Recover the amino acids of this structure.
């Protein structure tokens, strides 16, 4: 066979090989991405969930049934911040005052979550 | 094992590089029908086949040793499972796989019997060998030190790839070219002489460009991997680089002689031109090639040596040059200025001497004398004492906790002589032969952290300063260094006002870690590049009105990108409870970590109530000392707005003091 033909064939084979590998991996990565997104969406939407979070009470607003709490990360819901949470009933924040370190339970379908229980830890 | 690894790496690198050079040189010389030229081409091809096998074999050994290294036991080098894991799961393994595959294709291509009688076939075959050789060589950059450069990894890999490719063209071309010249210079090689002369001229032109590329990429890579002079002379990697540079300079000197003298004499016939010149050029090329192979041996060692940037340099000299030595010494400054001007004059003379053909020797000699005189005049005033640890980087970051423990150590071990405030005025100190240094002054800032570390470790015998190397652990000594840096920063920051100085960040905010209640701890560093921080050190009894004022403008401050962090100076763990419902404070009030923050930041500005405005890069830009009474928060907000309007962002301060 002529040398230039060998060279052309060899380079063609290399290009095809690299292209095939790229497409193979690319398709696989795209599929994994899609599955991950689906799984995330399923986890995030429409299902009632519950978290138990540690924090410190910064303000109690009985007239609104709201507790303002500085808390750590709430997995899948929000980053660490100071945030007002609605209490499920006025009874919940009885005996809770500013500066109390607490562990509280959040329940609901995100983003509508309420505090269903709270207890002092210190 | 280490020696075997080095040999394998060297053989692998050298054969991969020579493969590229051999292919390039053949392509450069071009196709010829002369029998001698064809014989040379054939011999180079035979050599390439051997090189390809050598590269494959040594590559296997390198892979085995790499596996043994990753798995931490020698036996793994021969286990298929371990090798497969390295190949698939590590970057170095994947790069190896790609390169080995290309090398195998190249070997098969070189060993196959191709008919290259027609010009088209010849070009296709030679170009293919060149392409495959380059493609098998360049990815090595992605598995070396360049892949660990942060940030701009891609740039570092591209530079390294260009560098090895250039080395392949230059270094790899020397020996084949020498062989050609040698063959052509022999009695029966007369038919190939014009061909050899042409090849040598083409190679010389190409090599000049390639060497420039090598110097440029090499310099940029050295900056990325070594960083500074201390890294160059004080670490194993840096010294290897120096050795490499020395050899490269020697090779370049040979190359310069070749270009200036031998190349012009190749044509014609006579006792010094033509064949004798050809033989001499070939000898010089072999010399250059051998030096280059030695350079590759050093490079192979460098690939298994941690880059200087990640090592603690040991300064080998007892002096270093520092412009800080000129502080407050006008006579010395003038001397340095004059000396540097004379040196520049010498440099100009040197350039002129090299450019002008006639009277070169006296001009160059004169210029060198002037240059030497200038340097001799300018440098001595810049010399300051240096120690092996001068450029050592602290192993403990500049952090409030470290400064606070340094403060405790200072009280226990240093205050007796240096005084509680660091002024060097304690009774025990005044009795010494040489009074203790005033640690507050700019004096401390003029020395490197490594200098302070050396004195703490070994003492200053002639001044009566004791050594603490045995008494205090390494970490404790660094804590003291951090404390001293904060102390002297505080002295420099006396004049800092509530108004910022635009575009002049200089006071580094020590990092600190804090927690609000049971939430996970956060650090000041986390706000870098994202938020401006208003750090308020308050005394509750007097600061209620100021806290109320800040709380009232919480929303405005948040909109301007300000994070307020309030620290009670009494470090009360129930600080939030103590503030109570009025004022309604919702910003961070530190309940854990307050003690260290207060200790460190009171060194920077001591006042019962003090507020620090820390910009997004991590510099303290404004300090407000007060009593805690409500002031004018609008002023603070205006300063924040000025910070937000600053155009040039300073680079973030280093994590460690220097």
């Amino acid at each position: 066979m002529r040398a230039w033909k060998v060279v052309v064939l060899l380079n063609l084979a290399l290009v095809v090989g690299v292209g095939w590998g790229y497409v193979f991996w690319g398709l696989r990565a795209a599929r994994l991405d899609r599955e991950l997104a689906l799984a995330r969406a399923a986890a995030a939407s429409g299902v009632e969930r519950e978290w138990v979070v540690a924090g410190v009470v910064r303000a109690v607003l009985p007239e609104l049934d709201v507790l303002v709490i500085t808390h750590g990360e709430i997995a899948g819901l929000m980053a660490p911040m100071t945030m007002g949470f609605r209490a499920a009933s006025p009874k919940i924040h009885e005996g809770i005052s500013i500066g109390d370190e607490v562990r509280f339970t959040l329940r609901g379908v995100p983003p509508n979550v309420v505090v269903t229980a709270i207890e002092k830890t210190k | 094992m280490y020696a075997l690894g080095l040999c394998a790496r060297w053989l692998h690198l050298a054969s991969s590089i020579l493969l590229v050079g051999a292919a390039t040189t053949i392509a450069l010389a071009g196709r010829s029908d002369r029998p001698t030229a064809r014989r040379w081409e054939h011999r180079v091809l035979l050599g390439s086949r051997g090189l390809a096998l050598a590269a494959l074999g040594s590559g296997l050994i390198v892979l085995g040793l790499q596996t043994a290294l990753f798995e931490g036991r020698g036996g793994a080098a021969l286990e298929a499972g371990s090798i497969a894991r390295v190949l698939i799961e590590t970057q170095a393994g994947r790069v190896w796989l790609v390169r080995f595959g290309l090398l195998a294709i190249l070997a098969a291509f070189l060993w196959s019997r191709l008919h290259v009688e027609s010009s088209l076939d010849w070009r296709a075959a030679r170009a293919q060998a060149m392409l495959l050789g380059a493609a098998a060589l360049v990815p090595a950059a992605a598995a070396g030190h360049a892949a660990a450069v942060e940030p701009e990894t891609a740039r570092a890999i591209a530079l390294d790839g260009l560098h090895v490719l250039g080395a392949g063209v230059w270094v790899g071309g020397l020996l084949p070219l020498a062989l050609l010249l040698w063959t052509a210079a022999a009695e029966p090689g007369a038919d190939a002489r014009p061909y050899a002369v042409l090849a040598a001229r083409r190679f010389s032109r190409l090599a000049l460009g390639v060497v420039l590329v090598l110097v440029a990429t090499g310099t940029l890579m050295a900056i990325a991997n070594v960083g500074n002079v201390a890294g160059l002379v004080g670490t194993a990697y840096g010294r290897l680089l120096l050795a490499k540079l020395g050899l490269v300079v020697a090779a370049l000197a040979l190359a310069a002689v070749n270009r200036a003298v031998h190349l012009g004499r190749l044509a014609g016939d006579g006792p010094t031109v033509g064949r004798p010149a050809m033989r001499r050029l070939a000898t010089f090329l072999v010399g250059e090639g051998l030096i280059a192979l030695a350079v590759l041996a050093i490079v192979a060692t460098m690939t298994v040596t941690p880059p200087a940037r990640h090592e603690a340099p040991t300064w080998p000299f007892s002096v270093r040059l520092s412009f800080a030595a000129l502080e407050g010494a006008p006579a010395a400054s003038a001397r340095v200025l004059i000396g540097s001007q004379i040196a520049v004059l010498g440099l100009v003379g040197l350039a002129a001497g090299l450019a002008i053909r006639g009277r070169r020797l006296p001009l160059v000699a004169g210029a060198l004398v002037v240059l030497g005189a200038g340097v001799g005049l300018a440098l001595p005033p810049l010399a300051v004492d240096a120690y092996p640890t001068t450029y050592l980087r602290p192993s403990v970051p500049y952090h409030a906790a470290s400064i606070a423990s340094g403060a405790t150590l200072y009280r226990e071990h240093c205050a007796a002589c240096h005084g509680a405030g660091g002024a060097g005025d304690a009774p025990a100190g005044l009795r010494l032969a040489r009074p203790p240094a005033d640690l507050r002054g700019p004096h401390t800032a003029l020395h490197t952290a490594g200098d302070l570390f050396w004195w703490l470790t070994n003492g200053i015998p002639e001044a009566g300063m004791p050594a603490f190397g045995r008494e205090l652990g390494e970490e404790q000594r660094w804590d003291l260094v951090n404390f001293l840096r904060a102390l002297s920063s505080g002295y420099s920051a006396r004049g800092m006002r509530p108004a910022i100085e635009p575009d002049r960040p200089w006071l580094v905010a020590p990092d600190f870690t804090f927690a609000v209640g049971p939430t996970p701890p956060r650090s000041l560093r986390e706000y870098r590049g994202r938020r401006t921080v208003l750090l308020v050190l308050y005394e509750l009894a007097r600061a209620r009105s100021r806290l109320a004022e800040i709380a009232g403008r919480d929303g405005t401050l948040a909109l301007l990108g300000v994070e307020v962090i309030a620290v009670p100076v009494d470090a009360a763990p129930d600080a939030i409870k103590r503030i109570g419902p009025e004022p309604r404070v919702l910003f961070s009030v530190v309940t854990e970590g307050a003690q260290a923050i207060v200790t460190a930041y009171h060194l920077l500005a001591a006042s019962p109530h003090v507020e620090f405005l820390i910009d997004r890069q991590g510099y303290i830009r404004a300090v407000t000392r007060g009593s805690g009474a409500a002031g004018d928060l609008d002023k603070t907000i205006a300063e924040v707005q000025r910070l937000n309007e600053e155009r040039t962002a300073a680079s973030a301060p280093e994590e460690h003091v220097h």
Observations:
- Residues 1-45 of chain A form one domain.
- The helical segments of chain A are 3-44.
